[in-house]
Records
---
Amino acid sequence: MAALTDGELGTPDFRDPQWAAFPPGKDKVEVVIDLGKPVEVSSVAIDMLINHEAAAHLPTRAMVSVSQDGVDYEYFGSGKAAISFDKHALQQNLDKSFKPRAILILVERQAKSARFVKVTIIPSADVRLMLDEVMVNPVASRTMRPARLAPPP
């Protein structure tokens, strides 16, 4: 799954080859990143797709753990979508006319030294998960498309 750490973000089109799709029915999806050497990890971002045509929705939960040896992991934090889901936005998400979009889930906390980062994603029942990037210590840049953090007009 090297594509999940290549720095390339997918478009809202679920057919974009940047998206890694995980079929419905999985109880969890785990992605482990070997950073090559210990790094001070202070944040992890997971880019996911909401697309009704592809039955791709946000997960119930995303958790991050860190490790020095890749065997014993310590809980780092849980993430939530970096958008607000008020009642109106939630109804839009359930509406089939809702436009596909990528959502950034961010986990931040005090820095912790780690060589390995494990992301565990718990899907909602009977939905597909689509990921295109897992970023450790992301830096806001043009490639992160910060406009993706807000609901479309």
---
Amino acid sequence: MKRIRFSSLSLYALTITLIIAGGQPCFCSVACAQDADSQSPASPDGAEADESETALSEDGASEDGAREDGASEEGRGNDDSASAESADPTTPPKPPVAVELTPEQEAAAAEAEAKFRDLHQQLIDALTQMRTTHIHFQNGEDQSADARRRYREHRDRFRQLMRETYDAADRLLPLKLVPDAVTFIGTTLKYREDNDIYDVSTLRGCVQLIDGNAREIFLFRGGARSAVCVGDFRLAKKIYEAMGEEHMEEIDKSLMFYMDKIEEQWTAELAARKADEGKELPQVKLSTTRGDIVLELFIDSAPSAVSNFIGLVEDGFYDDLDFYQVMEHLLALTGDPSGNGMGNTGEFLIDEHKNENARHGVRGSLVMAKMPIGETGQFVPNSASSQFAILFLPVSSVSSNQTVFGRVIEGMDVVCSLRRVDPAEKDKKDKVIVPPDRILTAEVIRRPDELPEPKYVDVKQAILEAQRQLHQGHEHAPPQ
């Protein structure tokens, strides 16, 4: 397949490209749903954010939103969901074709455009309100509990309007190519690619613009990663093949290499979710400095991990704990009272990744962290305690070593908005370190009357064995 010649055009030029390319973008048939979020710096909840994370103007907006869990979309899309031009984007643009609209179509286009512009203005107003509350808080004019409450209300309203405005732009473009709507979608998609927001809505938007002959690399990366996350593996392969390896980042090369394994695990995950339908699985809500996250827990496949987790939540263990490590394209890690990666409760859980009904690591999965054995990539058996990770992207190797005990069902947009934190950066000279986001409170919102008894093990012997193996490995290592 021919490779793409990618563009470095501005978003304004991207809009002009779509217009010159000949009219209406060809839309894929993937369902569109979105939950959006944006956060101004140093919010009254205590989190700080870069100003670049919230850029809104008359022409468009940046947002860090996603549907509650793109991986929860069970449809793989249509095999013909993208046009031939998205499969082979080197096809030259078709000349403009004048399409005469019926009076009904013209009326529908006018109504859709009016809806988009009205929502866009409401969005700007909502952001102004949120920033005003934030400025008053920062300046010490009003740091009351009521100010915090108002800020959260403005933030949630902004998220809702981001979702509605994006959906309105999405409905408008098939009827009329409006530059403001194209710019809004393009800016949003660039922010999503930068912040690991990969879901059905991102996939649809990327394919829409690609089908309209846009050639910005972030559209292809965001589209391919989103296709992997929502289970449209055929489309993901098409986009990656069109990109060519020279344009892939390391995460894209990894996803492409393990694609078949990820697809196999995704199929198993869909079957497990189907089997869970009708069950009232336990749920926990994490209220964070970025918003609320709702977790569903797999008590059937990981009973010890779930029971232990619920017990810690009910004891207030997770309240005020940092997301001390948040790595792009990978995970957000929390549950460490020490904040340095070494903390635990003093009790260690039996591994459950070998259970017959064990789950796999897809986007939004909750994974029990374990003690690593040096830098070998291996873990001390049965060493999970309180720390857990939320995955941004599928990791096919997770279920070979670690227990997957739940998933995010609401607020994956919040997870994606968490400040990226690399603990190693603390040791760099002259590096400015900003506070990480954190869990404010954790609350069990649904649980069975009786919980299984967690199975704990004495991990001391396993640690000694791991240390012995690591020492032997160093003794047999070749000299440098």
